[in-house]
Every structure is written in structure tokens, then in C-alpha cells.
């Protein structure tokens, strides 16, 4: 039988795609139905992770890579062939089928693309972990990095993320979130190698999952919270109990920018319902402290407000210099 023969019923070709991010054997019901009903199942990759599970289910799989013409001929007489796609897909096969279909000389079988497994939300994070594993081993620079050496990059990426948010640049926001995520994965990968207290990205994720569930009993438990303020109050109470803190000031990083530090202290005081008068003293520092506390009480982030004002000042400077309007310049 030849692919150009007009006599026989054309049959059916099913291209079965699977995700390497899902455990092998976890296929959809339509995929299992197609596999069991097929006259022939083919896979070009003898090491495909699905093959042991297909054979365990009683499905005979031919380790073959037929051409488009051969596959069409094999479907003559109304037969169905299922091709289990490799990780790279089947570009040669699909291109060949498209070429034959476009020629108008071949009676084509029914063609179907059937996803057998789907990525769950967050599945691409597995790719990031795998890529980071390889880079850590094979890259001369990455393999030598330490937590301390990477610290400055974490700060830089966090500031760039804030800038993208304040600029309202959605594309930049997506990219900067990725850069921040990279820092998390990179540090977790380095932490795996610690000889005394190693931990992995799964430990990091597991820790934050547990923390979020514990601190959101109004979502995962029996408590109720109807306002953001109630949520924040419970969060702080739970956090203090977890860490056995004696003061609301504990856990506030003193190395952060001054305005942000002052606002954070004021926020803790206000949330805890404390009456703490501002210290009096001479100098600009105390004036800035009072401004930061006033801003926090008004719901204004003093750091963000100052950045907005500073950018306006920057724009005025550029205008005075006769330079290109700042909104058209990408720094």
C-alpha cells in the first residue's frame, strides 16, 4: 500500500504529548482510551519515561520512528496509530504530515493532537530548579558563589522590582520577579551543600507554606477576619508567639533605609495599640523621624513618597540640562 493510494480508508493518527513535569503514568482518561484502542503504538525514544507504565498496563509499544509516509501507509484500512511524542516533540514527523497534507496528492488520515498530561500551576518552577542544579555544577562563576557573595544582588534585584512596580511597567515587573525568584532558588541550591545544616528549595517552600497556613486561620481554620487590620493584628500576634518575642521591635531589620525603618517601627507601635511619644532632640534626623511617623499614620509609605519626589527632581534636572524627556529614557 502506498500513501498516495486512493483505495483504502485513511485511518487515524494520534500524536500523544506528555509533560515531563508530571509523574510518569499519570495520564488522562482520553489518553488511556486512545492507547488501548490503537492498532499500533509507537515511540521513537526507547528511554521515554512513560514506556514502562504503558507496558505495565498491557500496551505494546513499538520503539520506532516512522516517516510521515510510512505512518500514513500503516493507517490504511481504517487503522489507528498512536505516536507517543518525545520530549522534543516530533518535528520531523509533523512537518512531513503537513507537507503531504498540503500537496493535495494524499488522502490524509484523521489527525489528532492529544495532550495526555498537563502541567499544574507552578510546574515551570521545576524547570528552574533543574536549570539551577546544572548551572551550579557546570558554570565556573556560579559554582563558586556563596550566600554572602550573592547578598548584594538580592538587594539590587529587590530595588529593581520596586522600581518596576512604581513605573507600572508590566513586562519589566514580570522580568524583575523572575530575577528575585532566581535569587531564592540560587541561595537554596547553595544551602544544599552546607555540611552542617543543609536545606533545599523544598524545605524553603514547605516552611513558607506552613507559615502561611498557620497565620491565616481565617482562611484555613475556624477564626474570622473581616478587615485587613484584623488580619494584620492576628498575623503579628501569631508571629510574636511563634518567635517568642518580648518586644514589637524584634524582627525589624535595622539595616533597612532610615525612612522605611522609622515607618516600620511606627506601624508596629500603632498596630500594638501602644502610646509611645516620639523622642525629642535636635537635628534633621528627628524631623525626618516625625515626618516618617506622620506618613505611616496617614497610610503613606515615606520611602515611596520620597522616591516619587526624587524622580520629579531628577526629571527637572534633566529638563534643565536640555536632555531627552525622562519618560523616554530606559535606565
From TrEMBL:
<keyword id="KW-0378">Hydrolase</keyword>
<dbReference type="InterPro" id="IPR048015">
    <property type="entry name" value="NTP-PPase_MazG-like_N"/>
</dbReference>
<dbReference type="GO" id="GO:0046052">
    <property type="term" value="P:UTP catabolic process"/>
</dbReference>
<feature type="domain" description="NTP pyrophosphohydrolase MazG-like">
    <location>
        <begin position="145"/>
        <end position="220"/>
    </location>
</feature>
<dbReference type="GO" id="GO:0046081">
    <property type="term" value="P:dUTP catabolic process"/>
</dbReference>
<dbReference type="GO" id="GO:0006950">
    <property type="term" value="P:response to stress"/>
</dbReference>
<dbReference type="InterPro" id="IPR011551">
    <property type="entry name" value="NTP_PyrPHydrolase_MazG"/>
</dbReference>
<dbReference type="GO" id="GO:0046076">
    <property type="term" value="P:dTTP catabolic process"/>
</dbReference>
<dbReference type="InterPro" id="IPR004518">
    <property type="entry name" value="MazG-like_dom"/>
</dbReference>
<dbReference type="GO" id="GO:0006203">
    <property type="term" value="P:dGTP catabolic process"/>
</dbReference>
<dbReference type="GO" id="GO:0046061">
    <property type="term" value="P:dATP catabolic process"/>
</dbReference>
<protein>
    <submittedName>
        <fullName>Nucleoside triphosphate pyrophosphohydrolase</fullName>
        <ecNumber>3.6.1.9</ecNumber>
    </submittedName>
</protein>
<dbReference type="GO" id="GO:0047429">
    <property type="term" value="F:nucleoside triphosphate diphosphatase activity"/>
</dbReference>
<dbReference type="GO" id="GO:0046047">
    <property type="term" value="P:TTP catabolic process"/>
</dbReference>
<dbReference type="Pfam" id="PF03819">
    <property type="entry name" value="MazG"/>
</dbReference>
Amino acid at each position: 500500500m502506498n500513501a498516495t493510494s486512493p483505495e483504502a480508508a485513511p485511518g487515524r493518527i494520534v500524536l500523544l504529548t506528555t509533560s515531563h513535569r508530571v509523574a510518569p503514568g499519570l495520564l488522562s482518561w482520553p489518553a488511556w482510551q486512545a492507547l488501548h484502542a490503537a492498532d499500533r503504538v509507537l515511540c521513537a525514544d526507547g528511554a521515554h519515561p512513560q514506556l514502562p507504565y504503558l507496558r505495565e498496563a498491557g500496551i505494546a509499544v513499538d520503539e520506532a520512528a516512522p516517516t510521515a509516509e510510512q505512518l500514513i501507509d500503516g493507517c490504511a484500512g481504517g487503522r489507528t496509530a498512536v505516536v507517543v511524542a518525545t520530549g522534543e516533540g516530533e518535528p520531523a514527523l509533523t512537518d512531513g504530515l503537513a507537507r503531504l497534507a498540503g500537496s493535495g496528492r494524499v488522502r490524509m488520515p484523521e489527525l489528532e493532537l492529544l495532550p495526555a498530561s498537563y502541567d499544574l500551576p507552578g510546574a515551570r518552577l521545576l524547570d528552574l530548579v533543574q536549570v539551577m542544579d546544572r548551572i551550579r555544577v557546570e558554570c565556573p562563576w556560579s559554582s563558586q558563589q556563596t550566600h554572602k557573595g550573592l547578598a548584594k544582588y538580592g538587594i539590587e534585584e529587590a530595588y529593581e522590582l520596586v522600581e518596576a512596580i512604581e513605573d507600572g511597567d508590566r513586562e519589566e515587573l514580570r522580568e524583575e520577579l523572575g530575577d528575585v525568584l532566581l535569587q531564592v532558588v540560587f541561595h537554596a541550591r547553595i544551602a544544599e551543600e552546607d555540611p552542617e545544616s543543609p536545606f533545599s528549595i523544598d524545605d524553603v517552600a514547605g516552611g513558607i507554606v506552613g507559615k502561611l497556613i498557620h497565620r491565616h486561620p481565617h482562611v484555613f481554620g475556624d477564626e474570622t477576619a473581616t478587615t485587613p487590620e484584623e488580619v494584620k493584628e492576628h498575623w503579628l500576634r501569631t508571629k510574636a508567639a511563634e518567635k517568642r518575642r518580648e518586644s514589637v521591635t524584634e524582627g525589624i531589620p535595622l539595616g533597612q533605609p532610615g525612612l522605611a525603618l522609622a515607618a516600620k517601627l511606627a506601624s508596629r507601635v500603632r498596630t500594638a495599640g501602644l502610646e509611645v511619644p516620639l523622642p525629642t532632640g535636635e537635628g534633621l534626623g528627628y524631623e525626618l523621624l516625625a515626618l516618617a511617623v506622620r506618613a505611616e499614620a496617614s497610610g503613606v509609605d515615606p520611602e515611596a513618597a520620597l522616591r516619587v519626589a526624587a524622580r520629579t527632581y531628577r526629571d527637572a534636572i534633566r529638563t534643565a540640562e536640555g536632555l531627552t524627556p525622562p519618560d523616554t529614557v530606559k535606565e
